[in-house]
Design goal:
Elements lengths: L1 H15 L6 H22 L11 H6 L14 H17 L8
Length: about 100
């Protein structure tokens, strides 16, 4: 289910961020690929199969991982929505000291 995927991405991101990098840089360097993996899984894959032996973290860690579900690229609309989501994360999720 989509909630499982969102929790998996959030947990992975929190565990792998660079505490010394600016927030916006962490979003760009650490969150972009996992969000792309999940977006493709939701659009083209079987979301309900995500609970099994699915190793999402391996896909999150491998920027060159082959994503087998769906076409090679996202539609323009889906890509724009993903970019808007990442931009909103960069703005909305700031650290306690206001770093961004």
């Amino acid at each position: 289910e989509a909630r499982y995927l969102a929790t998996a991405v959030a947990s992975w991101y929190v565990n792998t961020i660079d505490p010394y990098a600016p927030h916006a840089q962490n979003i760009e360097s650490r969150l972009r690929h996992p969000v792309h993996v999940v977006t493709r899984r939701i659009l083209y894959g079987n979301v309900n199969a995500a609970h099994g032996n699915d190793n999402l973290e391996a896909l999150f860690n491998d920027d060159d991982a082959e994503i087998k579900d769906g076409p090679d690229i996202l539609t323009r609309r889906s890509a724009a929505r993903m970019e808007a989501f990442l931009s909103s994360c960069s703005v909305a999720l700031r650290t306690a000291d206001g770093e961004g």
